Amino acid sequence: MRKFVEKLSAVLDHVADLSIRIAGIGLFLMTVFIAWQVFGRFVLNDTPTWTETSSILIMGWFLLLGAAAGIREGNHLSFDVVLFLVNDKAKSVAFTISDFVVIAFGMGMVVYGLQLALKTWPTTIPNLGISGGVAFLALITGGALLVIYSVERLLRRAVGLPTTRFSDKLAEAD
Amino acid sequence: MELLVLFGTFTFLLLIGTPVAFCLGASSFATIAFIGLPPVVVFQRLNSGISVFALMAIPFFIYAGELMVRGDIARRLVALAGGIVGHLRGGLGQVNISASVLFGGISGSAAADATAIGGIMIPQMAERGYGRDYAVSVTVMSSIIALMLPPSHNLIIYSISAGGRLSIADLFTAGIIPGLVLAMSLMLVAWWIARRRGYPTERFPGFGVLAGLLINAVPGLILVAIIFGGVRSGIFTASESSCIAVVYAILVTIFAYRTLSWTAFVEATLNAVRTSSMVLLVIGSAAAFGWLLAYMRVPTALVEALKDVSDNPIIILLMLNVVLLLLGTFMDMSPLIVITTPIFLPVATAYGVDPVHFGIILILNLGIGLCTPPVGAVLFVGCAVGRVSVGQAMRSIVPFYIAAVATLMLVTYMPALSLWLPSLFH
Amino acid sequence: EITLRSSDTHPEGYPTVVAVEAMGEMLEERSDGRICVEVFHSAQLGEEKDTIEQTQLGVIDLNRVSLGPFNNIIEETKVFSLPYIFRSTDHMHAVVDGEVGADILAEFSNHDLVGLAYFDGGSRSFYNSKKPITSVADIEGLKFRVMQSDVFVDMVDALGGNATPLPYGEVYSSIQTGVIDGAENNWPSFESSGHYEVAGYYTLDQHLIVPEVLVMSKTKMESLSAEDQALIRQAAKDAVPVMRDLWAKREKASEEKVRAAGVEIVDDIDKTPFIDAMDVVYEKHVTSDKLKDLVTRIRAVE
Ligand code: NA
Ligand code: NA
What we know:
The complex is a heterotrimer.
Chain A: H1 2-44, H2 50-73, H3 81-85, H4 88-120, H5 137-158, H6 166-173
Chain B: H1 2-15, H2 20-35, H3 40-50, H4 57-70, H5 73-85, H6 91-104, H7 110-127, H8 132-142, H9 145-148, H10 153-161, H11 168-197, H12 207-233, H13 238-256, H14 262-295, H15 298-309, H16 313-330, H17 333-350, H18 355-369, H19 377-386, H20 390-413, H21 415-423
Helix pairs in contact in B: 1-2, 2-14, 3-14, 4-10, 4-13, 4-14, 5-6, 5-12, 6-7, 6-8, 6-11, 7-8, 7-19, 8-19, 8-20, 10-17, 11-12, 11-18, 11-20, 11-21, 12-13, 14-17, 15-17, 16-17, 16-18, 17-18, 18-20, 20-21
Chain C: E1 2-7, H1 15-30, E2 35-40, H2 48-57, E3 62-66, H3 89-97, H4 99-107, E4 113-119, E5 124-128, E6 143-146, H5 150-158, E7 162-165, H6 171-176, E8 182-185, H7 187-192, E9 201-208, E10 212-217, H8 218-222, H9 226-260, E11 264-266, H10 272-277, H11 279-285, H12 289-300
Parallel strand pairs in C: 1-2, 1-3, 6-7, 9-11
Antiparallel strand pairs in C: 3-10, 4-10, 5-8, 5-9
The complex binds sodium ion (NA) (2 copies).
Residues 328-329, 331, 369-370, 372, 375-376 of chain B line the site of one sodium ion (NA).
């Protein structure tokens, strides 16, 4: 079991690394698009109308990919005061509940994101001409990754492997 | 009952350490299901909450800050501050605070300020015989200045939370004088402690050297001018100016000064993704949470309740400040802005407080919360950088708290401090 | 015992908000207090695109919205957003109160909504900081801020101007600093935004007179008794004159304030060349037979 979880984590290491790099490219692309918008308005005297809408779409992707990877890397802000006061057993129960909550919310993102995408599929996004449903694809993907990474956390905890948290990093730094 | 479900689940999840974004999202999810509304609304709000053009300024400013810190711009600003105020009593303490004023103009993040300035200043201060506790206290408290001076992405979050109808240019301008007042009050405390502890002063380097330091710091200072001038004059929107800041930072650090390697550039990009996606997810989930609060008429009920307590705006503002300070000690800034703005802003405006003025009060107040235990992200960062425990840092931070809270009271009860400067542009 | 939650993006006291509140009072009186309306103003429940979805889902019951966000959902609504489609506000009222208005309102029922009534959105005209516009030639080369919509961008281009999409909140300082030369809007917005302080020339070409709609969630409507449904439909109808009256007053007050500030108003231009310039816009956007037919019918209304 432990072997299997370690293998799974090794695979997910690559997935998370890839997704955070895609997110990084997204942030860079956003920079290029908006810079082009400013350039168009001042220099070409012709403001491109697609830059704003497409940058917003990219932002959705980069933030949901980044946020999902954040679950794995333990980057998310949380309130850890109470956890300092309790023993390891109670802590582990609390973390497990948290992971289930993230799984539930991630599943909500997938299911209801799908519902929204299907409902808005016939509409079009102004200035881009693509389907309005596209706006929800990032939500669905991000939700799926959240579920996968949280299941990984549960498995790791079950077999006694460590899982990272926001507070761990601070403790190390201290 | 519905309110109980919302706040009950939220508090429970918060206490067991669920990430704040999911506390907000999951408690909204549970409450919607409890009321019997279609849960899809939660995810629609989440998606709309993050699909806002003005929000783009957040990743961009964070990105620009990352590039500046890694590309040597921050160190040059510190050197300039050293030349200007190093000869005052408690010299390096004053330098630390002044550097925050300069760096605050290119960073909207208190944590970035504490890391950048603290990383450079604290070792220097320790070497020159300053107590580490003092060095950390000065670093941590002066980093609030970055939140008050433009560009502050927290003011953008506030503008969006207020319904996106407040001028970001006005908010940016409004923060300047309160930010400088805060800097002066902190410098006063730094001077007082330094005198009592007999800390040294630096030699004035002479105007020749100062001119050299100024030239070195020019790229950083130009960025301040681009961002503030661009937004204020209406040439750029806040999001556009933040993007220009990134482009400028890339050009300066990679091409002009060659202070940023390819690896450092990639690291800066990925770090910006990490930090901003955390902040943005919180904003998205808080949009769902805020929608429920509006749907359940919480702000209206709160205004009614407060009207029964008092009809004196002075008392109401004091109460709001106390509540915010308390919340701020327990939670982080951006979630608190998004959660409390829709609730407290209607209260404040009902008592005749200008929304721009209230924004400045809110940011300063929650900024103080970043420096207080138990949950003070900037305090943690400062302690980590300065290698002291939170308990040690507490030894000299209290006088700084007093100065910051005194500034908060001044800002609260003297609206002109915030509103006079923007009024000049109308 | 029935509370209808209604959304509006306008602030408290705005004509549309007051009109829906008035509708609520009528309903309360006529139903002996059984039905009431709660208005969530100032976009408390979200922007129009979002609240439309919420109304379709039955999360909120009533919604006062512009027609713009419907253009991508209900094709017929596009016709009202065409430049110079209406000759005057009276013409617009005649159209929406007549057969065409009823036909388009009926289309909403194919999208989980019930169209209850048309409200006024005012008539939009050009203002700028450079010169009085008295002919199409005067627009040549001027930069105008427009809303994010292909039709509006094409309209400004067709008149020889330069369309610049900008967020509304940036318009004031952008005119002030000369980033753009002007924008376009109705009297109340021209006044309340303070844009008249920086744009001293207003030409009443009335290129857009777009009505707004009050819609209801179809799920909610169908859950009510036939008698209550009739009450709601009637109250919505009766709120229209209230709305038009409030709007006219508001428009007048704004006009007086702007005129008193010394803005030069051009109110006697010959609109024919402006309308002629729109041929390319109509060619590009009025492509389906459905829309062509609607354009003909609207033009035929006296
Ligand atoms: Na700043
Ligand atoms: Na805090």
